[in-house]
Design goal:
Length: 191
């Protein structure tokens, strides 16, 4: 299923596969833009002065803790600034990020879920600015040239690829349950 998604993404982002509008007509041609022209990149901050709560704090390694304040509330795509720079993720809701993780906001003519899928196609390591710990800067990200469809086609693409992600997640969950079941059977056999 993951290979299927990779193949579909390749066809979609190379424009080999195009969606049609609600009338069965072609969508307009895709346009070249710089990432900095379609979204704003926010920087994470220290959270240690805040109290425990229900707002997740993320770093490049994932969820760190929960606090009582948020840095941003809404749809965002996070991308590592230091460390793991090639694992973007989509989040919706109140969020706080530390200084190793950028978050995106103020989307202009782009859908956040489409940006997430687009971010998955970018070779972030190609933009690495450090010889040791991988690093990205806002200015480097803002200068990345992308080709994007109109917002209606973006929504269709994002919904299509998100549906594949949901199926992958469901299959992984099913596989994990089967592994646990198998482990239990093996333990019973050798007791």
């Amino acid at each position: 299923m993951c290979q299927y998604k990779k193949g579909m993404m390749q066809k979609i982002f190379s424009q080999e596969l195009r969606f049609k509008d609600e009338n069965g007509e072609e969508f307009p041609e895709w346009r070249k833009k710089l990432l900095g022209n379609v979204l704003t990149i926010g920087s994470g901050r220290d959270y240690k002065h805040l109290s425990a709560g229900d707002v997740p704090v993320f770093g490049t390694g994932g969820l760190m803790t929960m606090i009582d304040q948020f840095l941003y509330d809404g749809e965002t795509v996070c991308i590592g600034r230091k460390g793991t720079i090639d694992k973007p993720f989509y989040y919706k809701g109140k969020i706080w990020t530390v200084d190793t993780l950028f978050y995106t906001h103020q989307f202009r003519e782009v859908c956040p879920k489409f940006i997430y899928q687009l971010f998955l196609t970018i070779n972030w390591k190609e933009y690495n600015e450090a010889s040791g710990v991988p690093s990205l800067s806002k200015s480097t990200i803002e200068k990345i040239e992308i080709i994007i469809p109109c917002e209606s086609e973006q929504t269709k693409i994002a919904n299509f690829l998100s549906a594949i992600d949901d199926k992958i997640t469901a299959k992984k969950t099913e596989l994990d349950k089967l592994k646990i079941w198998k482990q239990g059977l093996l333990q019973q056999m050798f007791v």
